[in-house]
Amino acid sequence: MANLLITRLRQGRRTLPFPDTEPNLPDRFRGLPAIDRSRCPAGCEACADACPTDAIAINGSLRIDLGRCLFCPECAIACPEGALHFTREYRLATSDRSDLVLTNGETLKLAHRLAADLHRILGRSLKLRQVSAGGCSGCEADVNVLNTVVFDLGRFGIQFVASPRHADGLLVTGPVTRNMSLALEKTYAAVPEPKIVVAVGACAISGGPFRDRPEVLNGASDVVPVDLFIPGCPPHPITILDGLLRLIGRIENRPPANIQQ
């Protein structure tokens, strides 16, 4: 027992100080994509051709749909002039699906706090029921890690619960397979009003790499209304935490992200 206590004292505080300080992200972290249009060759569509989910479109201007983006490096690798790269910007969550669609030079509009009436009820204590609607377990793993001592989601009053009847909302991962569609509908119906829905990951937002396949729907929005969109494949736990804290008003007035960083 003495050795255990000594070891624990040597370890010190294990919980990240986020959001009071900026997170220490891994070297290989890929965040918000940035584009230098001055380096884009005329008529070049190499990045769009390389994208596995059609997240990039070029029609006079270059458009990136972060809701479809897998944050893989294929577009950056394919760009002959190195005009596209991924920044270390982890703040990616938005309140509207359309805000994830960016054209060159456009600023990413980050998620805003719940409406006043919802914030009064849910802002200090948010209970979520997690629903894996056909996910690969990538997003599910990064959601689950928020419960560890490193992130300690509970210190913000956010907890995951076993029953939708005890929840204030749903956190959905996966593309929503047709076999899970009814289950998601019933789970949503079981959550008492007022309630919210959070879509985590490219699959839950747009269907991800499975988009338009006959076996799946194109994300949670095809079944239930979504209040928070957190892109990524999977999103980093800090990206998920940042989005949730913005939703309940714990992070406000931070500088917005921009596609040209």
Lay out the secondary structure.
Elements lengths: L1 H10 L21 E3 L10 H5 L5 E4 L1 E5 L8 H5 L5 E3 L14 E3 L3 E2 L7 H7 L3 E7 L5 H7 L13 E3 L8 E5 L4 H13 L5 E5 L1 H5 L21 E3 L6 H11 L9 E2 L3
Parallel strand pairs: 7-8, 7-9, 9-10, 10-11
Antiparallel strand pairs: 1-4, 2-3, 3-5, 6-12
Rg calculated over all Cα atoms? 19 Å
Percentage of residues in DSSP E strands: 15-25%
Helix-strand sequence: HEHEEHEEEHEHEEHEHEHE
Number of strands: 12
Descriptive report:
- The protein is an alpha/beta fold and 261 residues long.
- Helix content is 24%, strand content 17%.
- The protein has two domains: 33-90 and 101-106, Alpha-Beta Plaits, CATH 3.30.70; 116-256, 3-Layer(aba) Sandwich (Rossmann fold).
Descriptive keywords:
261 residues; 12 strands; alpha/beta; Alpha-Beta Plaits; globular; 3-stranded antiparallel sheet; 2 domains; single chain; 5-stranded parallel sheet
